[in-house]
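Issue 218. Parser rejects a valid record. Input:
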Amino acid sequence: MKLKKTIIVGKNAKLKPFACLKVSGLTSFDLLDRLSVLIQHSVAVPLPSTSSPDKNQTSTEQTIKKRILPPTKILAKAPSSLSPSELVEFNDLLSRLDSICQTAKENNIPILFDAEQTYYQPAIDLLALYFCSLYNRDGPLVYNTYQMYLKDGPERLKTDLANAKAYGYHLGIKLVRGAYMVTERQRAQQKNYSDPISATINETHANYAEGVKWALTHLDHAGVMIASHNEDTITSSISQMEELKIDPKNPNVQFAQLYGMGDHLSLLCVHHGLRVFKYVPYGPVELVTPYLIRRMQENRGFLGSTSSKERHLLW
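Output the parser choked on:
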């Protein structure tokens, strides 16, 4: 598996890198869709007895939602089950993900679960959070991605942070705005359900700012990657870190931009002594190109407003 080879290569890097994965690259969209439907209609059940919440917690803190449940427990409570062929595919997916996470642990390389469309995200969230609960006991190794252009983005993040604290593991958080606005809204209209995307860009900015605040104030049981090409986001995050007296070299805080984009923001982070990473997508041209086009659409405002700063770096 190429991803595992990438993780192993990263072990010898001077600055410990991150590895990234798309769950849809390890299984079929049909299975993710099917799992998401089952999860959305399932009944919440607690984690196994090997990890139980603090008895001194309030009733609110003890209200564990179905965002952190073992996949097998969730499916056992679902109104219908997977077919024999789906079950084989599901077990293969669990095995692949566990092997990747184990390789990441052995080489001390954090792994980022990418976010995808909302109709696949319940399954991806469940899997990412499940592996967080298994591999993040000593610190954030597995990271889930939170798309803050979603109306429920902040609430989902807060719920997952509460669950991480309740069950004694660290939540890995990658914050992004989101890149599936067009297809999400088209599907919502076609299927006649409420648009999951915030109505305005300012609401998205507010959601992202709230996510950064929550992550930075919960570093006792979380790690965060602030993945953004928005200059206001970067500068305000730096200011918050200074106000909270967070060490710029804190291993649980890092910033990220795409390779070839936002270099002036990356340099700003370096100037402040922060940990900053460049996200490098690779693969067959026909698969990588749609990804890069979505990034350009997501950052079209950035491309226009900061192009002069980018050009200045060339001279």
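Fixed in the parser; the record now loads. The chain is about 50% helix and 10% strand.
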